[in-house]
Amino acid sequence: MYTDHCRQTTKEIVLKLSRIPSRKPLYQEVQEEILSLIRDWDEERPIPSEAVLSEQFGVSRSTVREALQRLENADVVYKRHGVGTFVRPQSNAIATAMNYLHGIERIIRSSGKEPSFGRHEVSVITFDEHIREVFSDERVKRGVRVVRVYLADGTPTLYAVSYIPETILDGDLESAAEKIERLGRAGESLFSILAAAFQHSVDYAVTRIRAVMPSDAIFAELNFSQSEPCIKLNQIHHDRDGRVLIYSEDVLDPEVFELIVLRKSIR
């Protein structure tokens, strides 16, 4: 059973992913440095050789090679055999790798766009049966709901509804909601708010990806075609001990977001 933010299509393909937190390996740090380096470069411009990048970043050539391979997998760069690596012509889509758990603001900013909120509402609610089942805790009856519409360079791109259980919020729920509201409007992500204000850190998430037809409410918020499916992410965020901290339902504009999944063969 799902809430009515989107109407379920008659057919769906479900992909469950365990997403790991951002404890960055060295190649990922190099990957982000290369992204920053080439962000404003012209398309088709050649990228410095592995030897040059290795010396520039102070890492091994194998680390640079791994970073470049990841960028190639993400269609950021491409290789010409015997010639070199070049900046690939890009679409306006916001690409994000699902292998790592990042906040939406960071994902939008990493694409070269400026994140902001078109809507940010925090309220105390009594959870319905579906939401209570997600948390698998008999003590959870109420909690905080956070509704956000994320903008990228002023364009609505994502509609997110997140539920936080009363059991991880200190003291009075109304006070907790006010704190989340205030810190959220200051630009803090839910992850950072939970960690800093309530001492609960998200360690990983299980994500369910579905194609759904947009409801009237979603159409009004994101203003894209009601005749085309949108992407819906149902995400359960856990701490290191497996406790559920946040349940979220995110609806993405497929014309704006591109999800990238790294899949490895089983040998």
Automatic annotation (TrEMBL):
Molecular function per GO:
DNA binding; DNA-binding transcription factor activity
Q: In terms of domain of life, where is this protein from?
A: Bacteria
Q: Which GO terms describe its biological process?
A: negative regulation of DNA-templated transcription
Q: Which InterPro entries match?
A: Bact_HTH_transcr_reg (IPR050679), Chorismate_lyase_/UTRA_dom_sf (IPR028978), Tscrpt_reg_HTH_GntR (IPR000524), UTRA (IPR011663), WH-like_DNA-bd_sf (IPR036388), WH_DNA-bd_sf (IPR036390)
**Which terms are listed as keywords in the entry?**
DNA-binding, Transcription, Transcription regulation
CDD domains for this protein: WHTH_GntR
This chain belongs to which protein, by name?
Transcriptional regulator, GntR family
Organism per entry = Sediminispirochaeta smaragdinae (strain DSM 11293 / JCM 15392 / SEBR 4228) (Spirochaeta smaragdinae)
